[in-house]
Write a structure and sequence with these properties.
The protein is an all-alpha fold and 117 residues long. It has six helices and no strands.
């Protein structure tokens, strides 16, 4: 199911916080705020946890996408309207990650400032 595989991979990348998805911006703001506040241990811990989460998600994704298919599962898939509609939320996530709306940007900035002493 190549179309579903692409959408699944994009969803996992969004969940992992890779650019251009919106979670990447919040991760960067949190790390940046901790770094500026001289919380080096906290910064290192956050980065390690982000890497562990990313490695876990990509490991599972790799097994799902490239593992052995179950017997009797047909290859390929028709591109239908419900499948195409799954791309809409991913597009919105990418758009918010590239050009976040002003209220969301203020909210994320305020959340990052909470870490500052």
């Amino acid at each position: 199911a190549p179309a579903t595989a692409v959408l699944l991979a994009a969803a996992v990348f969004a969940l992992a916080g890779l650019p251009p998805f919106s979670l990447f911006l919040s991760e960067i703001l949190i790390v940046q705020a901790a770094w500026r506040a001289d919380h080096m241990l906290l910064t290192a811990l956050v980065l390690v946890l982000i890497l562990v989460a990313f490695a876990s998600l990509v490991s599972h994704l790799q097994r799902v996408l490239f593992g052995e298919a179950a017997a009797g599962v047909p290859r390929g898939e028709p591109v239908t309207a419900p499948l195409a509609l799954l791309a809409v939320p991913l597009g919105v996530l990418a758009w918010v990650g590239v050009m976040p709306p002003e209220p969301l940007q203020r909210l994320l900035t305020h959340a990052a400032e909470v870490l500052r002493p």
